[in-house]
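Can anyone check this?
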Amino acid sequence: MLLLAKRITLGTFHCIKTFLTWNKSKRIFCYYPLLGVYLFLLGSCSAPSNVEKAIDEKILHFGLGSEPQYLDPHLANSVSAHNVIIALIEGLVSEDPKTLKPVPGVAEKWDISEDGLVYTFHLRKNAKWSNGDPVTAHDFVYSYKRILNPELASQYASMLHGLKNAREYHEEGLSWDEAKVGATAIDDYTLQLTLENPTPYFLELLNHYSWFPAHPPTIEKFGAFGKQGTAWTRPGNYVGNGPFTLSDHKVNSVIEVKKNPLYWDAQTVSLEGIRFYPIESADTEERAFHSGFLHLTQTVSPDRIDFLKENHPDLIHFESYLGTYFYRFNVEEPPFDDVRVRLAFNLATDRQAIVEKVTKGGQLPARCFTPPGTGGFSPESRFRFDPQKAKSLIQEYLTEKGLESLPKIELKYNTSEGHKKVAEALQGMWKNHLGAEIQLLNMEWKVFLSTIAKRDFSLARAGWIGDYVDANTFLHMWRTGDGHNNTGWSSTRYDELLELAAQESDTQKRFSYFEECEKLIAENAPILPIYFYVHVTLRSPTVKGWHPTLLDHHPYKYVRLENLVQNN
C-alpha cells in the first residue's frame, strides 16, 4: 500500500476520498479479491474508463452480483451461473432476444408428433465445440445421462423427468438401457426425445442450462461424469459450443470470455468479449458503474432508488421479473418443526410494509408462492398479515412446550445490502409481534449455497426465478426429494397433484391442481413468501440489443456497444 500511495496524484486522491466516503463501512483492504475494481476506481479520474474503451474493444463489462458456485451446466443453480454459462454453451434451441420465444440453436429445425410426445431435432452440421469437434446428437444423449446420473447429485436433475423413463434411471436405480430413457441419437445429427406427457412449454424448457450439452471427451478426461467440482470448467480446459470461450477466471474477481470463432453463428456476434465481475455489494457495484468500470449492474441498493430515479432516470431500469423472494424454514429442527410456529412467523410478516418501506422498487407483496399470471395461472392469496393470530399461535406453542419464550433463532442470508435490510425489517417485526430474538448471520454466496444444500440452518433467505413461464417451475421445487426443496417438508398429496397436473391437457383442470398445491404450501408453511421481484438495475445507454424480458434472459450474440456521440 505504501508503494501504491507514492504513485497516486493529488487529483486521484480526491477519487480515493470520494470512494472511501461512499463506502465507509467497507475499506479497500476488506475486498482484496476485488482489488482490481478498486484500483480502477482510484485511477478513473484521469485514465479512460472501461465503458469509454469498450466502443473500440467491444468488451462488455457486467456486474455479476455473486461468484457462481459452478460453471458446469449440469451442476449450476444460480442466476449468476446462468449469466456466464449462456455465453459458453448453447442448447438445441435459443431464444428470441425480445420475446424469448424458441428459435433454432444447435438444432436448425425440429418436428413434433401429433400427440405432442415425440420431438425430432435436426442438428446443424456446422455446429462445433470450441476445440473443433462437431456437436452431435450423441453429445446430448451423453449429457442427459450425466445430469440424471444419481452419483452427480445435480439439484436440477428433476428438470429432465419429463423425458420418458428418466425418473426410473435417476431415482430407481435402473441402468440407462434398462430404463429405456426417451433420448435417442438416430444418427450423428438427428436427436429424438420422447416425453412422458405432452408438455406445451417443452421447447422453452430446452433453453435452460440443465438441458445443455457438455463435451464428452472433456468430461471423461477430468473424471467429471459422476463427480462435482473437477477441473474441466477451468480456463484452458473448458470446451463449450457457445458464442464465447472461457479465457480467464479469477475467483471473486473476474470471469472473462472471448468471442468463439468456431461458433456456427459467429458473424452475428458483435462483442469481442465479456468480463463478469462478481461484486456482491450493491453500493460498490453502483460506484463502479458511475466510474465507468461497468456497463451493467446486477442490482441497486434500495436506499439509492429514490436518488437515482430523480437524478439518473435514463440509467436506472425497473423491469418485470418472474420470481419470488422468500425464506425457507427447516421443518425438521425446532422451533420450526411445529407448523404453528411457521404459520405464526408468516402471520407476523407485514409484506406491504416491506415493499413500501424497504425494497422500494415496485415489488408486490407475495401472498402466495407462484407469481400471479404465470402462464395464465393466478393463485388465491392465502398468506396474510394478522399479528394477533400470530401471537395466539406462539402462545399456544409455548404453553404446550412449557416455555416462556422462543429460543434464539439464527437467520442466514448471503452478502447483500438488500438482503440485510429485509432481514433487519423482519427481525424487528418478529421481535415486536412474537417476542422472537432473531440473530442475523451474513454468509458469502458459495458458503451460503453449500450450507442450504446441507440443510444446516433454521431459517434462511431464498429466492426463485422462473426457469420458464409456467407455474410448474415454481411448484415443482417443493416435490419430495427435489434438489431445491431443502426444507425437509414432504407431502404425498402434493406430489400426487404435480403428477396429475403433468398428465392433464385441460388448462383449467391443470390450474385446479396447482391451486391445491398452493393451498398445501399455505397450510403447512414450509416457506415464508415475502415479495414478487422487480429487477432494478443500472445500464449504460451505450449497451444496445439488451431488451427487458420476464426471465431476465439476454442472448449475448445480439448485444452490441454503440458510441452515443456518433448516433446523435
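Reply from J.R.: I decoded it. The CA atoms of residues 53 and 59 lie 8 Å apart.
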